[in-house]
Hints:
Elements: H1 8-14, H2 21-24, E1 43-48, E2 51-55, H3 57-114, H4 121-136, H5 153-184, H6 193-196, H7 217-223, H8 249-254, H9 260-270, H10 278-302, H11 311-335, H12 341-347, H13 369-390, H14 392-406, H15 416-428, H16 442-451, H17 458-466
Antiparallel strand pairs: 1-2
Amino acid sequence: MHIPPYAHDTIRAALPNVPTSRQVGGLDCCLCDKPFGDDLAAIPLGPTPTSGVFGCRPCLTRLITRSRRARDSALAQDAKRARAESAAWLPVRDRHLARLDSVRQAAESVAGLAQDDDTEALRVAWLLISLESAYAWVPDTPEPPTSADRDDSGLRDETFRLDLAMITAREAVAERLAYHLINEAQPAEPEMCEEFECPEDCSGRHDSSHIDCGPDDVFESLAEHGITVEQPEPEPLSPRLAAPSRNTETEEKRSPLPGIEEGVPPVLGRFGIDADDTDVLVSAAAVGLVADAWRKGLLRVLHTADDGPSNGEIFAQSVDLYRRARAALVVARDAGPEALLAFVAVASDTDLPWAGGSRFTLGTLTESVPEFVRHVDNQVWITAEMMRERGWRAGLLYRAASAVFKAPEHFGMPAWPGTAASAMERLAALDRSDAPAALADLAAVEAALLEAPDRLGAEALDWLSHQALLG
């Protein structure tokens, strides 16, 4: 009788610990203890064909059947686990491949623009800096599950193609800039050092290691040259809270923008922002988040829109979103960066009427709305990643630094009361006969500008904007 290998353990477990003399002598079955005879043949189980213990065919058949069922059940469970692991792994793999492909296409495009004499040399340099930032933000290659192919040639080949494209882009840019510097003698620009948080002894020369534009700026810059590279979906937020952490040396090297806690506060101080005052810092960070995630993406959409909002509607909505961004940043301190999704939900809502009594909605725009929504998602994702890697305060510093350069006098910034006072002084001297009724009471207007400008309404803010009173 053939005993398959998969049944050996089951049969061995069924054998008695101390067989009887009749079982050892081949007289009785060691499994059911029935005597062998003409109707019940003895089948040797070892250690040799003539010595050891013996079993009968019915007992061995029963044990083999049980082993086969257990084996088949285990194989089915393994197959089910493999299918589940594959279902979870494939989206991760596809997302990583999409990011590699996007950055590779961007690198090939940068190389082409570097070789095009119509592209300014300084613009080529900035394209390389933003490309290097996108390349640095590419995550490490994800590890496949044990049931998947550990040697994934697709991931390996796409990574290799990206590295080759980066080498080509760097060489093209280096050649272009070398000739440009020789022929044009580009002077140093030390006034840029303040923005880049350079040391006092900086010569004014900068390379890509000083600047991090985030993972998406290169795609936006290429779009200005008429080149569209589809961006991958942002990585999903992890449930880990964004509490400040003590990074190890390895984590310090991997964290985005290392040294932000030391370099940004002095810069903020020059713009009247005390980085140790949490309330002021949160307000500035909210202004920066709206400027980067909403205003920048919106203005790009409006360039191609014929049915866009007025300046007053934009200003009213930006004030309302500032409050929402501020509230989300406060909640994120304890609840984690996922709290920022509340801001995303409002900022990118295509059906929500805007603040200040406006009837405008993003859904009325006929073009570029998906691009705008993706931009909001990406910018908030960057903020969340900063909080996750460096802590809540680092995320605030990152966005506050953006605010002082992009919206230094916007509502929510320390300079806003001065802007409001200047606007009131000039408003009092203007002929307001054609102004909206909301601007009749100057005391009420001043209070609204200081506390909630959108309370004046989009029409009044639009009138003030046309008079160039809001900066």
